[in-house]
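To: structure subgroup
Subject: Chain for Friday's discussion

All,

I'm putting the inputs and outputs inline so they're searchable in the archive.
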Amino acid sequence: MLFSTYNIHYGVGADGKYDLTRIADAVAEADIICLQETVRGWPQNGYADQTAEIGRRLNRYFRFHGPMEADASTVSADGFITNRRRSFGNAIVSRWPILWSRGVMLPKMRLMNGFDLQRGYIEAAIAVPSRPLRVYCTHLSHVGSRQRLPQVAALMEGVKRAALAGGSCHMKLSGASPSQVPPARAARLTPSISAATWGRRCRGPTWLKCVQ
């Protein structure tokens, strides 16, 4: 089973070009994909639903959670309102059906001398051929440990509660800024081991191979 986690930076590559097709093709081999910095409803890219576009390109199941959400409505010259919302968050794209999922908000402190977006994670159970697999996808704060550590604690508490409840095995794929780990294409992981990637501005996806 091949996993990929990719901070797609709003769909813009290291060369400054917006190209969702290129991003989708880069992770096409993966069975389960976790995406960070995915957006929906932003005027800068034609109000695109990036998760849906990537999911359709790959013909996969998908789930998006945007913990940061704001109004993106427009008003025409004759006063007609087009209601829109813009959101920023994480997505899971899967070769197999997503049995259930939920989006969870992570802690965020108000900053007096900086700006940070609301963060969250997706928890999903995926119907892989062997047995249901629980997957977590998140993107932690870029500001520093004062923001990130409570977020890590909240995420791990959620994983712990799920384990106590029993049921599916776990694989956690997370992405956060601003440091980077080189791709690990051949990492052999058991279903209960978690793996994290931390990317400055990712130049490509990170790969994880799970052998059950």
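Points worth raising on Friday:
The chain has one domain: 2-210.
The longest helix spans residues 145-165.

D.
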